[in-house]
Specification:
The structure holds two protein chains of two kinds. Chain A is mainly α. Chain A contains 14 helices and two strands; from the N terminus they run αααααβααααβααααα. Chain A has a single domain, classed as ABC transporter involved in vitamin B12 uptake, BtuC. A two-stranded antiparallel ribbon of chain A has the order 1-2. Chain B is α/β, with parallel strands linked by helices. Chain B has one domain: P-loop containing nucleotide triphosphate hydrolases (Rossmann fold, 3-Layer(aba) Sandwich), CATH 3.40.50.300. The longest helix of chain B has 16 residues. Classes of the chains: A mainly alpha, B alpha/beta.
């Protein structure tokens, strides 16, 4: 109970901060935790280790930007539209890949290829304005979903983070989640007990894709710009995976812990050692340390869960 | 309850299973025997929907289920266990069994209650909250059966649940299987250990090199020359008769 109280206080404290710089750090950390949790729903709970979740992120980002700049749709409505589109991409991708029986590293490669395909498409299509990217006109205001005070952005990201955590908590309790975890541990045994592997994995990827795509919309409203590399680049996919794996894949709190640790490292090194590329290097070292010594991530080290056999 | 006709599977040039016919009567314990490599597990895998047969039909309760996926067959009421136990290693024993129970209820609490009840009935009561990876071989075999039973099957396929157990553990499993049958579940089991099966089964099929070589009651099978030869080598039956 004390832990929950501490987390709640920490989560709400940015509202009391005067410094926009610090609030901005909180926004980026919470945003990272949100995307990590979205990845975690398929990658952690279902063991569907995706290397290309940017395919969902970028779909949402571009859809939000295009609907707003070309069709004048209110950016708030971009959220449900992106969720639907991300869910659809996840569903179609999952149905194709899982029906073909691809898993493990093959699945990872297909997701990577999907994101790259979308990046190339975004680079060459007219509707995405190719490599120029899309600039969203700045018009701060609640109804435009743009906030001069970063605390507004923080509120939105925090609400999404709570939603993603609720999804993860539901997986930890429900029949769907139990089946997803079971097939991660052993596909044959799960199938023998009546788990429809293709259906369960496809729905998990669709849910994960829907959440990730909403993150894309938020990103565009915060930074007012998207281009093919921001949207579909490998860095986005890897950061999502890294946050979840370092924090603890398949756990409720893992992505949050991972985001706090990774952003803590990235931002403090940026202040202490002003050399470009130092943060990604530390990320790599941290990932190695986690894989070697904490296979369950940081969250896994805190609880006495059995080691994987 | 189960009717298998002409079931065939080739792996490359090898016929792993060659025209198997097999019937399981409702309420019975039926055994499929044979030396290692006879094709028993492949037959099981085809019947339960894990491998698609090249030829032949499988009928369950009158319905043709040939080529159905495993999860659909499980939902229809036929569930298999694995010879090499396949626990969900990261989950507790109760959580393992609950995956099976979720086939009949969507309510997490009801599923957990059913899982704990099934686990306790199969002698896993003391281990319900322990990780499945901490179980002994005998415990894992029980867990296989408990998970399968939690799906409320009408036909249970047991793949070598006695292999690797000591005599005391075998005796315990034998009485457990009887109790399961007495609770109304029909059982088809694979074994290559004959003694245990003779004590348990009402009808026995014997396979060797992919073919059915004998069928009958355990007593008839034990004296069948073809069976003795399959286990002990060509000419063994004649040499035993001479001795």
């Amino acid at each position: 109970m004390k832990v929950y109280l501490a987390v709640a206080i920490a989560a709400l404290s940015p509202f009391a901060l005067g410094s926009q710089f610090l609030v901005n750090l909180a926004v980026l950390t919470a945003f990272s935790a949100y995307l990590g949790q979205a990845w975690n729903i398929a990658g952690g709970f279902g063991g569907l280790t995706s290397f290309g979740h940017a395919v969902f992120f970028g779909t949402g980002a571009y859809l939000g930007a295009i609907l707003q700049t070309r069709f004048g749709l209110n950016p708030w409505l971009g959220l449900p539209a992106a969720a639907a589109a991300g869910g659809l991409v996840g569903f179609v991708l999952g149905a194709a890949v899982f029906r073909a029986g691809l898993r493990g590293s093959y699945f990872a490669l297909v997701t990577l290829a999907a994101a790259e395909t979308f990046r190339v498409l975004a680079n060459s299509l007219e509707i995405t304005r190719g490599g120029l990217g899309i600039l969203v006109p700045g018009a701060p205001g609640f109804w435009n979903f743009q906030f001069l005070d970063r605390r507004g952005s923080y509120a939105v990201v925090l609400a999404l983070l709570v939603l993603a955590m609720a999804c993860a908590a539901w997986l930890g309790r429900s029949r769907f989640g139990a089946r997803l975890i079971a097939l991660r541990e052993n596909e044959d045994a799960a199938a023998a007990l009546g788990v429809d592997l293709v259906r369960t994995k496809t729905l998990a990827l669709a849910l994960s894709g829907a959440l990730t795509a909403m993150g894309g919309v938020i990103y565009v409203q915060m930074f007012l710009y998207v281009d093919p590399t921001i949207a579909f680049g490998v860095e986005r996919s890897l950061e999502m995976l890294l946050v979840a794996m370092v924090g603890g894949a398949g756990t409720l709190w893992g992505p949050l812990l991972g985001a706090v640790v990774l952003h803590g490292i990235a931002d403090s090194t940026r202040v202490l050692i002003d050399k470009p590329g130092i943060a990604p290097m530390l990320y790599g070292v941290l990932l190695l340390v986690v894989i070697a010594f904490l296979p369950g991530g940081i969250a896994g080290a805190f609880r006495a869960k059995p080691a994987r056999a | 309850m189960l009717e298998v006709r002409g079931l065939t599977k080739r792996f490359g040039g090898l016929k792993a299973v060659d025209g198997l016919d097999l019937d399981v009567a409702a309420g019975s314990i039926t055994a499929l025997l044979g030396p290692n490599g006879a094709g028993k597990t492949t037959s099981f895998a085809m019947v339960a929907g894990f491998i698609r047969p090249d030829a032949g039909t499988v009928r369950f309760d009158g319905a043709d289920i040939t080529g159905w996926r495993a999860d659909r067959i499980a939902a229809a009421g036929m569930v298999r266990t694995f010879q090499i136990t396949q626990p969900f290693a990261g989950l507790s024993v109760a959580e393992n069994i609950r995956v099976g129970a979720f086939l009949r209820t969507g309510d997490p609490d009801a599923a957990m209650a059913a899982a704990r009840e099934t686990g306790t009935r199969l002698g896993l009561g003391a281990f319900l909250d322990r990780p499945a990876s901490a179980l002994t071989v005998a415990g894992r075999k029980r867990l296989e059966v408990a998970r399968a039973l939690a799906t409320a099957p009408r036909l249970l396929l047991l793949d070598e649940v006695m292999a690797g157990l000591n005599p005391t553990e075998v005796a315990e499993i034998v009485s457990m299987i009887r109790a399961v049958r007495d609770a109304g579940v029909t059982i088809l089991l694979i074994e290559h250990v004959m003694d245990a099966v003779i004590a348990l089964a009402e009808r026995v099929y014997v396979m060797a090199q992919g073919r059915r070589i004998a069928t009958g009651t355990p007593r008839e099978i034990a004296g069948d020359p073809a069976v003795i030869e399959a286990y002990l080598g060509p000419g063994a039956a004649r040499r035993m008769a001479d001795a």
